[in-house]
Amino acid sequence: MNAERLQGIIDFLLKAEISTKIQERLSTLRVMLGNLAANPADPTHQSQTVAALSELRKTVSSFAESLSAAQNRNLTDVKAHAYFSNDMVAEIADSFARNGVTPAVVQQQVNNLSEERQRYLDTLRSTQVSLNTLGIKSEPLSPGEAEIGFLIPRALFNNNLDDFQDELKTLNSIIRTFYEISNVTPEPISLRQLSTSDPIIFLGGSAKVLITIGKAINWCSDTIRGTMEIKRIVDAARAASVEQAVVESLEQQIEKRIAKCIEDKIGEMAERYCGDSHRKNELMGPLEKSLEQLLERVANGMTVEIGMLPPAKKADGTDADEKLQFDQLKQIARELAFPQISPGQPMLQISRDRTDSEQPAVSKRKSKAQRKTDDRAEELLITVDWSHRENPTGPQALKVPAGPWTRK
After folding, report:
1. Contact (CB, 8 A) for 395 and 388
2. How far apart are CA 317 and CA 14, in angstroms?
3. For labeling, which of 95, 106, 225, 248 is most exposed (least CB within 10 Å)?
């Protein structure tokens, strides 16, 4: 985590504290418990304490439900979970259940929690001031802007600069394909923030495109979860030294299921494409490749988070469609969740585009588009070879790259 990202998380938490007033509600409960401890039989103090606890629970629950999976991870990273989660209230309620006849015990626990939480908030505020003094500030979104962050585990590129560069090129290719399939003209993709450790790359983008990417990421997670049971069987069979043919047969079941999921997803996304039918057909290959690449990376630990700031409301109501997009994007951001990737051999290997001299000896599973391209390239090469065979001074083999410019 870099300083700008830390500053962004601190800014988020302090703004949340201002809007939710969790500490204020915790202090109210603390006072009510003090009154109850002094006079446990007073029904007024009893009802006031119950009301204060209920208000605290409602406030914290509402805030916790608004968080996305990525925001929850951010809270955990800065040790804020204990002070902004339902677990905090659950501990207080449990103390009430165990010490109902001795409210002084609960009062002491709440006193300790309130003081500890106040110290944490003071630490956040002092850190925020210190970072601002050093000129380190997070880059806030403007109204109507959205961003997407990709966390790329170092295992994906093994700290190798060439492979990291490949990952960036792959992300660029995927996003540009999703622009077009979303009926949005591709535009320059802005780099908003880059965090180190496991690199997190935040990119600006159209809300409409980020909706498409977000849905595809959720599809990746669902597809992986749907094959994890077979993967566990494969791992158990391999650990038990089961015959290689049996293991490979089980792995083929995973490939078949994934291939069917990709085929169905392509069909679903293609239905929403409104462009030229010829261009639509050309996009099917890049779309299949993009979905495969996303799936490979999520299966190897890549996670995604989405941030946005809804547009300012317009008096004439012309922003209705844009508001609807941001509401949908907000819901998708909250739903983003990723499967727990078990250690060991990943379900899918990362495939990379390499030159002939860099190709590994182990063969990779090829997509339908790749197989068609390979067949077409071989056909073109054979045709050109025969056309020059009668010319002893001509080239023996003229290699013509396959592409939209080639025709029979």
Report:
1. yes
2. 32
3. 248
